[in-house]
Amino acid sequence: MSSSDIPCICNPASLVIDGIDYPYSQLWGSALGECIYTPRQTASEIIGLASIAGYAVAFLPQVWHSYQRKSVEGFTFSFFVMFAAGDMVTLLGAFLTQQFATQRWLAVLFAVESVILGVQFAYYNLVYPRLERRRQLRTADDDAATSSAESALVSQPPPPQTVSLAASLIPMAIAAGVALARRAASSSTAAATAATVLTLASAPICDATPELSPAAHTAGWVTAWLSAAIFLVSRFGQIRTNYKTKSSTGVSPWFIFMLFFNNVLYMVSVLLRIDEVSATKMIEGTLPFLLGSAGPIAQDAVLLVQWFMYRKNTVVPVADQNGEEESDSDLDEDEEGRVQKKRPMSSSSSS
Fold first, then answer.
1. Distances, alpha carbon 104 to alpha carbons 48, 52, 53, 87, in Å
2. Rounded to whole angstroms, what are the CA distances from 52 to 107, 111, 159, 239?
3. Separation of alpha carbons 2 and 189, rounded Å
4. pTM above 0.70?
5. Rg (CA), the chain
6. How large is the average pLDDT for residues 111-123?
């Protein structure tokens, strides 16, 4: 058997724990660059992959929510900036501190999602209002078309129907992880046999990591802790805005739920392998990443409670989307002091 038949090997080829011999999995070694032996390590990888799958679609409810509303109003700029800054710093820290493969994949995914959300945020703040004003100017001479356009802009769109998307992808990710684990188990025995034939000189080590310079190493743990600090306060601005406006219409609840759920999965996947982390790596890399997940979990829980409390509240902006201010006679305040638009009097009363 040549070294080309097996891309990498693990050293040692197996671990003996409590009298049980656990050979390494060639599938995990080749696919993730991780030396996985025990069922606990396998469970950690499956949960980590499930969190990656969940994060891959976590931002879609927010993108769809903003698209339907044609606005990012209520989705605070501070939330987005802290979210994006934390993701970019996490990307650097995950690679410079040589975290587990699933952590590095997540960091890349976070960065991509931040870019997508940033493009949409800029579009609906800078580009879309100009395009809308031009469209309105082109139809200004047509009173009927203008009236129809104003009616469409003022009316609130229905809530985004992302339940089926978010709810279906989670079990799919878990099922894929289970199938991957079964395949990994079936390949373990063959991998162990191959490992006895190959020597360390003839094949690369699956979990080998490059040596970092002292400067890169220092930059890694600094960025890891900076990322944790950012995420620990990342949702404060959104929580404050929701509280002041008594509304959470700017943020999709499914976006927050997916962030909450996937952060929990991420933490569980890391904690399952916490005994493998050295004290130095714990302080310099793993601990800040755990804190960077625990903080958002608590904040996302607050945002979900706010959504439940304010879900029936809507805030109608004083200036409509045509850029014209509503007169004071068209506005009123409800019993809680929120600005509401007066309803036109109907010719017939309703029960």
1. 11, 10, 14, 11
2. 10, 13, 26, 26
3. 18
4. no
5. 26
6. 87
